[in-house]
Design a protein that fits this description.
The chain is α+β, with helices and mostly antiparallel strands and about 180 residues long. It has one domain: Gcn5-related N-acetyltransferase (GNAT) (Aminopeptidase, 3-Layer(aba) Sandwich). The chain contains 5 helices and 8 strands. It has an 8-stranded mixed sheet with strand order 1-2-3-4-5-6-8-7.
């Protein structure tokens, strides 16, 4: 259990930077769990503890991404990750990504709280103009989350993703600063 480095807080959770120690908890298990990886690009290749530690360490070196652990307030449990990535400082855009690993916390509104926190940070602190995300057409949870975060559907990349023997459409969403605030 890691309690340090609280960065942003909401009612039920807080965000903190990922730490190498996170790779020794349930985090590694999530990446290798087909149910957790159902609606995202993870789960195609096995993830090792070594590669996870390297990812965490590299996340600190880039000025084009902010990656946070989502920590549930009551038990200080690491339940997922959230990021702004592919930050383009010239065009003031970033890609939003979220990964809810602890299944017992699914459906409790914590993904919305975390998403709202990081979008507020992106628009109010980083002064981004546009934040976007993409999700598979069969990932209804992420589609609902994007809409709840005031994102509009901007397009569909037809059969852009091949996963589990099927081609899936990639639905793209985005929200502008003046639409969110």
């Amino acid at each position: 259990m890691i309690l340090s480095n609280e960065f942003l807080r909401a009612d039920g959770l807080y965000l903190r930077g990922l730490q190498p120690e996170d790779a020794f908890g349930n985090y590694l298990k999530w990446f290798n769990d087909p149910e957790v990886c159902f609606g995202n690009s993870h789960g195609v290749f096995p993830v090792s503890q070594k590669s996870l530690i390297e990812y965490i360490e590299n996340s600190y070196k880039s000025n084009q991404q902010l990656v946070f652990a989502i920590i549930e307030n009551q038990n200080h449990t690491h339940i997922g990750n959230i990021s702004l990535q592919n930050i383009n400082w010239i065009n003031r855009t970033a890609e939003f990504a979220i990964f809810m690993g602890e299944k017992s916390y699914w459906g409790k509104g914590l993904a919305f709280q975390a998403g709202n926190l990081i979008l507020q940070h992106g628009f109010n602190v980083l002064n981004l103009n546009r934040i976007y995300c993409g999700t598979f057409s069969n990932n209804q949870g992420m589609i609902n989350l994007a809409k709840a975060l005031k994102m509009s559907q901007e397009g569909v990349r037809r059969k852009a993703i091949y996963k589990n023997g099927n081609y899936l459409d990639l639905i793209e969403f985005g929200v502008l600063q003046d639409e969110f605030i």
